[in-house]
Amino acid sequence: MAYADQQMSGNRITALIVVALIHIVLGYALVTGLAYSGAQAVIKKLTTVDIKEEVKKEEPPPPPKKDQVPPPIVAPPPPMNINAAPPPIQTVAIALPPPPIPVQVAVAPPAPPPPRFTAKGAQPKGNPGSWATNDDYPTGALRREEQGTTRFRVTVGSDGRVTGCTVTGSSGSSELDNTACSLITRRARFNPATDGEGNPTTGSYANAVRWVVPKE
To answer: How far apart are CA 150 and CA 137, in angstroms?
Structure first.
């Protein structure tokens, strides 16, 4: 704006100078007697100076300032340590309980029916003392004066006869022991043992023979 005012003032000064010159020329013309018409033409030419006043161009007002919203404050992400070692993995051993042991329930077999008869063992017929006497004393044992008690057990068959003899206690003389079993096997007779049905069956019998050296 200061530059435009200065330019306008300059044009006005120029116009004033021109007007002053016109007046000087007119005075000179009057003095020198120039023709009036010529003076008029000159005056007309000089006074028709177009002084164009520069029209001040109004600058458009600046656009209204928009309320500038400050940008949101964004916190920078925390630094990441990419090379950080992973945390150690701890393994814990868990002891599992042993599997349960299956319980086997023993099924008892059905009870047998009660016997109709009472089982009995083999019973000797007659006197067992007659199976071996001093008359049966072995000669060698008698000469050596061997004596003692022979304990035995015999097996009795279903027919009542002795099928086997075993010495369960020695008299101290093998001759006396062997003689006792031999005599009992030949002479002993039994009523056989019976089972729960009353039928004869195999049984056993145990006893002893006492050997004493006879006196003369």
So the answer is: 13
Instruction: Scan for tokens 């000669």, then name that residue.
Output: 139
Q: Are 136 and 128 in contact (CB under 8 A)?
A: no
pLDDT for residue 18: 76
Cα→Cα distances 201→158, 171, 206, Å: 5, 31, 17
Block mean pLDDT (10 aa), the chain, length 216: 52 76 73 56 53 57 64 66 65 72 77 79 93 93 94 96 96 96 96 91 95 86
Strand partners, 162: 156
Instruction: Tell me how crowded residue 149 is: count the other CB atoms within 10 A of its CB.
Output: 15
Which SS3 state, helix, strand or coil, does residue 119 take? coil
Phi, psi angle pair for 9, to nearest 5°: -65, -40
Looking at the chain, the number of H-run helices and the number of E-run strands are 4, 7
Treating both helix axes as pointing N-terminal to C-terminal, what angle do 36-47 and 2-32 enclose, rounded to 10 degrees?
180
pLDDT at residue 209 in the model: 95
pLDDT of residue 157: 95
Q: Where are the alpha helices (DSSP H) in the chain?
A: 2-32, 36-47, 139-143, 174-187
- C-alpha to C-alpha distance for 43 and 35, rounded to whole angstroms: 12
- For the record, the structure tokens of 94 come out as 């868990």
Size (the chain), residues: 216
Backbone angles phi, psi at 54, to 5 degrees: -65, 125
Quick check: helix, strand or coil at residue 136? helix
